[in-house]
Each structure stands twice: as C-alpha cells, then as structure tokens.
Design a protein that fits this description.
This protein has 12 helices and 18 strands.
Length: 391
C-alpha cells in the first residue's frame, strides 16, 4: 500500500508534516517521504489521501474485554462457561478495532480466556487489535476483583503465581495493590498486596522482560507499588505530590482511567449499577481529577488507558477519555502522545506508537487535524491495521 499526499501527525514532535507519503509492505511502514514524492510504487495499491490526516493507531493500555461496559458486567459473566466468555471477548476485540483502537492491553480476564482470544487473533481467525494480556491479575485472597484473578498470599505464593503466568506467555503482570470501587466490602484506600509480595512479582516479570502493572487507587497502595518498582500505576486516584516525585524519579507511567470513575459517580439508582460502586466513586472522582491535574503539572509520564468495558464504560468512551485529559490540563499534542507513542513505551512495544520506517503499519486516516480537534471519534475515514484497510 502506498498512501500519498497525506498530512502526517508527527506525534513525537506534536507537529504536522505535509505533504507526506507512506509506503507500507508486509504489514510494516517501509518509508515515509516528506515533500514531493513519487506518484506510485510498482506493485503497491496507491491511496490518494489528499485532505486527510494520518495518525498512528490508538492504544488503550487498560481494558477488560471479557466485560461489556454495562451496569454490572462482572456479575453478568459469573457462572458462564469459558468457551462463551472467549467468544464474548473476541467480539469485543473486533468492535474495539472498528473504533480505530489498534492496540489494547487487557489487564484482567479469568483463567485461560485471554490466552485463547490472543491466539485466535494471532492466527487470523478473528479481527481485532494487537492484544496484550496479563491473564488473571494477582490479588490477595478475597482481594480486588478476585473473581477474575489468582488469589495469592505471601511472597512464595505470589512468586509461583507470577512464574506460572510467565510460563503461559503473558505480556504483562497485573497486581492488585489496593482495594477498589468495583468489589463489594473493600475500600479503595485500603492496601492489599504488600510491598514484598509485589516486589517479587516485579522481579520475576522483569527477569523475563515483562512489564508489571499495579491497580492502585489509595495512597498507601500507590506508594507500596512504587516501592516495589512497578512499571505502570493504574488509576492513581489518591496520589500525592510525594508520589508524583517518585513517579518522576523512577520513570513510572500513570494510566489514569479518568472517565470510569466519573461515569460511576454520575450513576443513579435507575441504572442498575451496584450502589457500593457508585458511592465509592463519588468519594473518589473529584480528588482523582484534582490529582491528575497535579500529575500533568509535575510532568509525570502519562499513557492513555480507560478501564474499557468496566461498568458504564463501553470501549467507545475511549474518545471521551482523551477529551477529559485535555480538559484537565494536557495539551492536545500531549494527549495524542499519551494515546500513541507514550502508550507504546509504557507497554514496552517499540514497534508501535508512531508512523515511522520499521514500525507496524497501524494508522488512521482522519478528516480533521487532531492537533486542532481532539473530537475524532466520528472523523476516522480509514483504519489500517498491519497494512490492511479495516474500514
């Protein structure tokens, strides 16, 4: 494929390169030509993108594809056979790609369900984004969303559980450092896995070159996860300036998931959302927004992640997440970086996140310049995944 006469968004610099011409072969970007370019390349389909804008495929660093974004999706999957859950997850993966989200990291699916769907995607049996999986998260007995996870207590149990997941080939290890809003009978501010338990998990993950992510909403859980050396903090609602300073020192990424708490806090009794989740979110989301502003002002590294398909958060809310990140202090260019090149770095994937020679050919053609207008959900003209047009 040869895309010519396009305005290319250089996400690293936050600049527009126009005209640009992108040569794609074998699912990779072979070259990007600036200025005057050839009219065609022999043997390659030519796509004249005059008037369109090329943006790298979007990345969501935090999703749960086994859920469906309804009022109480975790309750809906209890007792359902894994074969049905895999079909459900596959369908959500296909729907996600159709939105223009070409890479996701699933940070919580039960048992072997995520592995099956990832393999189906790799074999080309179904259409979907690049799928990175953590498999079941590691949690303490009765810990946060334990129905999805592997309950592990003590350093030795955690180490064994992590090694078993690494043996299966996970792309990340997910750790539950604190309570959360979407499990009854616990508080977001309450710590769960200990520093020592998480530290051995990080040690084992890093020995295999795998990233470690920690669900951490309360300050104690956030600080414990930072002390353990995790690569990404998911949520980070009640972080302090001291925590942000450690983020900066260690290069830790924040995956903020802003919209899910806002949406839960706004839920009324008619929605069917669990009351305990609504009440806890109402205590969290304003502080979350305030602390996110502080993270932005402090220069903390941020990558886009939504908690997609969690309660009241269908994956299409990804685009609302980008808008609220901008409303809370990030420049439009910084938001696009968080959704592309920064997200790729947070995931440890140097083949993704930008339109450059040697990268995977995952990109979007838009009818608007996203550096001027972040409201891009309905402005995507063409989705290209691995060099093949999806729409």
């Amino acid at each position: 494929m040869f895309i010519k006469n396009v305005a290319l968004v250089d996400v690293r610099k936050g600049e527009l390169i126009s005209p640009a011409h992108i040569l794609i072969e074998g699912g990779q970007v072979v070259s990007v030509i600036h200025g005057e370019g050839p009219g065609s390349f022999p043997g390659n389909e030519a796509v004249d993108a005059q008037g369109l804008f090329a943006l790298p495929g979007l990345i969501d660093c935090h999703v749960h594809l086994v859920w469906d974004g309804s009022d109480d999706p975790n309750a809906d999957i209890q007792g359902v056979d894994d074969e049905v859950l895999a079909i459900t997850m596959a369908r959500h993966a296909t729907e996600t790609l159709k939105l223009g989200i070409t890479t996701v990291r699933d940070v919580g699916s039960p048992r072997n369900v995520g592995f099956a769907v990832r393999e189906a995607l790799r074999r080309g049996l179904i259409a979907g984004p690049n799928l990175l999986i953590s498999g079941p998260p590691i949690c303490m007995t009765g810990g946060h969303v334990y129905t999805l996870g592997i309950e592990s207590d003590g350093v030795d149990e955690v180490r064994k559980s992590v090694r078993q997941l690494l043996k299966k080939g996970v792309d990340a290890i997910k750790l539950m450092a604190s309570g959360g809003v979407y499990t009854e009978g616990e508080e977001p501010a309450s710590p769960q896995l200990t520093v020592e338990e998480m530290a051995v998990a990080v040690e084992e993950a890093h020995k295999k070159g795998v990233k470690a992510a920690a669900h951490a909403e309360g300050l104690t859980g956030i600080m414990n996860a930072l002390k353990a050396g995790v690569d990404t903090i998911e949520h980070g609602n009640l972080a302090s300036q001291e925590a942000w300073d450690i983020f900066l020192d260690q290069g830790t990424y924040l995956i903020p998931t802003l919209m899910v708490f806002k949406r839960l806090a706004e839920a009324g009794p008619e929605t069917g959302t669990p009351e305990y989740a609504v009440l806890k979110s109402r205590h969290l989301h304003e502080a979350h927004f305030k602390n996110f502003r502080e993270a932005v002002a402090s220069g903390v590294k941020i990558a886009a992640g939504t908690d997609g398909n969690s309660p009241r958060l269908p994956e299409a809310m990804y685009f609302d997440e980008l808008l609220v990140m901008h409303e809370l202090g990030m420049s439009k260019a910084a938001v696009l970086q968080a959704a592309t090149v920064n997200a790729a770095e947070a995931l440890g994937r140097d083949d993704l996140g930008s339109i450059e020679a040697g990268k995977r050919a995952d990109l979007l053609l838009l009818s608007v310049n996203p550096l001027d207008d972040l409201n891009i959900r309905d402005k995507i003209v063409k989705i290209i995944k691995d060099g093949v047009a999806v729409s």
